[in-house]
From TrEMBL:
It is an enzyme of class 2 (transferase). GO terms for cellular component: cytosol. Substrate binds at T46, E119. Keywords: Amino-acid biosynthesis, ATP-binding, Kinase, Nucleotide-binding, Transferase. The lineage of its organism: Bacteria, Pseudomonadati, Pseudomonadota, Gammaproteobacteria, Alteromonadales. Its EC number is 2.7.2.4. Residues 5-277 form the Aspartate/glutamate/uridylate kinase domain. This is Aspartokinase. It comes from Pseudoalteromonas luteoviolacea DSM 6061. It holds the Pfam family AA_kinase.
Length: 448
């Protein structure tokens, strides 16, 4: 049975500066059911850390990056006096950061260590902001409970180990304190720091909620919920008050950056509701994502994911032959390449691969192409965007604005419909995709 606890996560924009942090602290103060607070690095910090670990910088540039990160923390600290325990922890952490950042070469583990500092700094500072409002607050190092494998930069959580550690170490603190901890980071079985991938703090919050049996996770960001499309792209986009787990997972997977794609997994496993709202305007409400929703049928949102690759494999041998697809997928799997969409004809198969900076797969390297090329003709197309229409029971035909008519206006490279009841997706040229999304939104979602 789930407890009455709420886990609240505050993203980079919500903890960008002192004013933003203070707003978040007030949200927590107003809701006594919030017992765990998961913070991200202040906006811009992880980007600096990523530049640092990319190892393209010389010593002077590294110093500059360290300075930029410390400046962001310093600007917030200028409004606060840290309690002794927090000050001591912050100083030690800052020292470790500066030392590691000066190394001219870093291994994968050290890269994750560097990437972890943004969230670690935020948790010291935010704890003080909360204490200054009179909230009994304990800072907690999430690496003690969020256990992962050693796949640095994209670690996979160990759900059972996390649950065990959380019930031993975290749950006992919750009756008397609000616990402030870090998103995005964890530790492997050797105690080495790992990270969950860019945007992973949402996922951390959901994993912690699962581990402590929380009743809900509140994701506080800079928009008043999940919108019918990215509100930055379309000023007529509207927040969606309710989404099912399936619809929200599809939106996140197909590019709605507001939620990390894996966030819904732990929530749906344990029936934990997820709320998405704006820390700048909490009174405006937001989106509730729940197991049971009386979802209306039809399209509810349109999303896009840029930097997709289309791989077309053609061979007359495929005709009436068995095992051809198995051969292709075995090769791709040997190179750790995960396939997104698949369509086939008599003699060819087209696959899409996610090449976004956040994607798990390695570069589509020549050795893999050579292996495929040994038994079929291979074509690779880049600079494509996957556009997805998300909803329930999406129909291609019917109604005034039938999808077939709307889609016929665009130069579509591949279309996938039917594998999921919740989406219809297709590829378009990347430089046209914003227009495509705006046009679909206008024709199919702004009419009502
Ligand atoms: N469908 C959508 N609904 C709401 N926001 C979206 C959507 N698609 C993309 N976004 C973008 O997601 C951003 C919030 O995500 P992110 O920048 O990761 O926030 P945070 O720093 O709080 O984690 C919004 O500013 C918005 O531009
Ligand atoms: N700081 C990490 C983790 C994260 O989730 O951040 P945010 O909540 O700001 O998206 C990143 O930028 O990737």
């Amino acid at each position: 049975m789930n407890s009455q606890y709420v886990v609240a996560k505050f993203g980079g924009t919500s903890v960008a500066d002192f004013t933003a942090m203070h707003r978040c602290a007030q949200i927590i103060n107003d809701d006594p059911s919030v017992r765990v607070v998961v913070v991200s690095a202040s906006a811009g910090v992880t980007n600096h850390l990523v530049t640092l670990v990319q190892q393209k910088s010389n010593e002077a540039q590294r110093l500059e990056l360290v300075e930029s990160v410390m400046q962001i923390q310093g600007n917030i600290l200028a409004h606060l006096t840290l309690d002794e325990d927090l000050q001591e922890g912050f100083n030690t952490t800052a020292e470790q950061f500066k030392q590691l950042a000066q190394l001219p070469a870093l291994d994968q583990q050290q890269c994750d260590e560097i990437l972890s500092f943004g969230e670690r700094f935020s948790s010291y500072i935010f704890s003080q902001v909360l204490r200054d409002l009179g909230v009994s607050t304990q800072r907690f190092d999430v690496r003690e409970v969020l256990k992962t494998d050693s796949n640095f930069s994209k670690a996979t959580p160990d759900v059972a180990a996390t649950e065990k550690a959380a019930s031993d170490l975290l749950v006992p603190l919750l009756d008397d304190n609000v616990v402030v901890t870090q998103g995005f980071i964890g530790s492997d079985k050797y105690g080495q720091t790992t990270t969950l991938g860019r945007g992973g703090s949402d996922y951390s919050a959901a994993l912690i909620a699962e581990a402590i049996g929380a009743k809900s996770v509140h994701i506080w960001t800079d928009v008043v919920g999940i919108f019918s499309t990215d509100p930055r792209l379309c000023n007529k986009a509207k927040p969606i008050p309710r989404l099912s787990f399936d619809e929200a997972a599809e939106m996140a997977t197909f590019g709605a950056k507001v939620l990390h794609p894996a966030t819904i997994l732990p929530a749906s496993r344990k029936g934990i509701s997820v709320f998405v709202g704006s820390s700048k305007a909490p009174e405006q409400g937001g989106t509730w994502i729940e197991k049971e929703t009386t979802s209306q049928s039809g399209i509810r949102a349109v999303t896009q994911r840029k930097n997709q690759i289309l791989l077309t494999l053609k061979s007359p041998e495929m005709l009436l032959a068995s095992g051809f697809l198995a051969k292709i997928f075995t090769i791709l799997s040997n190179y750790n390449i995960s396939v997104d969409l698949v369509t086939t004809s008599e003699i060819s198969v087209a696959l899409t691969l996610d090449n976004a900076p956040n994607a798990t797969r390695p570069e589509l390297d020549q050795a893999c192409l050579d292996e495929l090329g040994a038994f079929c003709h291979v074509t690779v197309e880049n600079n494509l965007t996957l556009v997805a229409m998300i909803g329930s029971e999406i129909q291609l035909q019917g109604g005034e604005d039938c999808l077939v008519d709307v889609l016929s206006e665009f130069d579509i490279r591949l279309i996938c419909h039917g594998a999921s009841r919740h989406n219809l997706c297709f590829l378009v040229e990347q430089n046209k995709s914003d227009l495509v999304v705006q046009s679909i939104h206008q024709k199919l979602l702004e009419a009502a």
